[in-house]
């Protein structure tokens, strides 16, 4: 009683574009022409235009054996929105480039597009164009996001000042913990296909890996509280790497305290289960898509009771080393060590 599957070749490139066009009617007044002509036409807003691109390749950035396609569609949009958020901007439009291998069916494509649509609706974004090509092997996704920011609101990586307070949202290391679990279950499954993955107790971290959220909620809250961070970046490669970006670009150094690093209990327990150091998950695990930012001391009062913002350290003079102070009081120098390079 198998579901009847439709080869994508049945509808062809133009059929798929028509389908996408029907699924994604433009909502923003700034989108004058979306899908359907040789180029989209936008009306510029008052401030500056932010542009960012992310490429996701099957086998490099995602594994379709454990990644549901609608989550993949959602994540592909969310990671771009996260970059706009990290500039303290508002996302407006995306374009979607797709390389599709012949194994993809129309039904699979629909699940992927449903995820893209869920993210576009959630973040209030128009899909305004893209391109489709066949791929010899593997699925690839290239999304470009356009956003808007007022001149005085845009936050760069280079604005951190000595004595600023270092803040991070949410909790860290969860996406990497989830990836470890998914990879382990995949190996178990390859060795014995009768074994069904046991993921219940890992639900939170698996979701952190498969369906991250861009922290636009925090951006809106900061705006309401009239707080403009002095520097900001999103945590895509791991906290250590992002801290060093802010330190180097701002010509300062940073000091963070292990006891203040936000880690979820399931992340912690999973690291221990894998005989790995939970602090390494937090410092070097990637893909949490939380926001790391610095604020001047005077803004601390306004944010200090925020349940989802954690104050992990402070900015110091460039002469000092970039330092992690452990719970035992030891000082460890922070190294750039994107977790990808460890694999
Ligand atoms: P051209 O041949 O001029 O590049 P296409 O036939 O590739 O035009 O595209 C026609 C329209 O469909 C354009 O508006 C394009 O942006 C849009 N489009 C193509 N692929 C996608 C896609 N993957 N997602 C959204 N829009 C798309
Ligand atoms: Mg084209």
Q: How would you concisely characterize the structure shown here?
A:
It is built from 10 helices and 13 strands. With 343 residues, it is an alpha+beta fold.
Kindly describe this structure.
This protein is of the alpha+beta class and about 350 residues long. The protein has ten helices and 13 strands. The strands form three sheets. Strands 8-10-7-11-9-12-13 form a seven-stranded mixed beta sheet, with helices on both faces. A four-stranded mixed beta sheet has the order 3-6-4-5, with helices on one face. The longest helix has 18 residues, at about 105-125. The protein starts with 11 loop residues before the first helix and ends in a 10-residue tail after the last strand. The relative contact order is 0.15. Adenosine-5'-diphosphate binds near residues 20, 96 and 130.
List the helices and strands and how they pair.
Layout lengths: L11 H12 L7 E3 L7 E2 L5 E10 L11 H17 L4 E11 L5 H18 L2 E9 L5 E10 L15 E5 L4 H18 L11 H8 L5 H9 L6 E4 L4 H12 L2 E5 L7 H9 L4 H7 L6 E5 L4 H4 L5 E8 L6 E3 L5 E3 L10
Bound molecules: adenosine-5'-diphosphate and magnesium ion (MG).
